[in-house]
Automatic annotation (TrEMBL):
Gene3D superfamilies (alphabetical): NAD(P)-binding Rossmann-like Domain
Organism (species): Sharpea azabuensis
Oxidoreductase among keywords: yes
Entry protein name: 3-oxoacyl-[acyl-carrier protein] reductase
Lineage: Bacteria, Bacillati, Bacillota, Erysipelotrichia, Erysipelotrichales
Keywords per UniProt: Oxidoreductase
InterPro entries (UniProt xref): NAD(P)-bd_dom_sf (IPR036291), SDR (IPR050259), SDR_fam (IPR002347)
Membership in a protein family: Belongs to the short-chain dehydrogenases/reductases (SDR) family.
PANTHER family, alphabetized: 3-OXOACYL-(ACYL-CARRIER-PROTEIN) REDUCTASE
Keyword Oxidoreductase: yes
Gene Ontology molecular-function annotations: oxidoreductase activity
Single GO biological process annotation from the record: bile acid metabolic process
Amino acid sequence: MELGLEGRTVIVTGAASGIGKATAEAYAKEGANLALADINYDGLKALKDELKDTKVYIEKVDVTNAESCKTFVDHVYKEYGRIDVLVNNAGTAKIMDLATFPEDVFRKHSELMLYAPVRFIQLCIPYFKENGWGSVVNMASMFGKQPGGLLSYDSIKAADIMISKDYANYCAPFNVNVNAVCPGPVDTPLWRAKGQLGDQLSEATGMEKEEAIKWYAKTNIPFGRYAKPEEIANAAVFLSSEPAHYINGVALNVDGGMVKSTY
Ligand code: NAD
């Protein structure tokens, strides 16, 4: 299937690691021109070095900082003269006691995973209108459909699904589709890195980290394994492709069958 992404400018936030990195690599295979944002500049630099045959623009961006986002989008337009696809992917998660869940963490997570995607959509709309075409993919989560006990994460990801549906209706008249991807657990640094979900799961279960990570997959995921980042990236690439352009306002589960909800 011809995906029609060659020469399109694709913005991916949180592109230095995990799903964002795999997403950038997947668009590169389709011949897209990449514009990658992350707070981790070294990670972006390494990815740019890896993608030698692709046009890659990288910038250190804190997506929670409005100024930083606007500057980045201005630079992307200056670099490529068009913006076609936006993948709002930057995110994080934290397992914390619901009885004492700190307000500042909730606010930080909202800034990162809810306000930032809205900000980027708003920044890109004028460029999509200029093209007469555009596509947005918001990286939500299965925990936006089914509670995972992560409070801020679950509720913000549910909101990500709803902003996707609202913007799907708003943007369709100017030929832009907006969808959410809802991954189940994916094997990325979000689980493996120090202080991240693997360690938090280990602390919660009393199991050693590797054992806790494996146990979680075996007991929760029908396939018995985590998704590979590229399995999520493929969904993002498809939803923003030309043949999928009429798909609008969906929240696509890519979770190996873990969530039973059809919403
Ligand atoms: P990851 O930790 O590997 O990558 C997240 C990236 O976001 C990192 O490169 C990080 O530097 C960047 N980032 C964090 N804060 C930022 C900020 N303020 N500004 C710019 N960049 C920032 O995580 P991942 O697993 O690849 O997750 C990517 C997305 O997928 C997140 O939105 C996450 O919620 C979602 N998701 C992940 C899983 C999973 O199991 N890994 C499941 C469902 C959804």
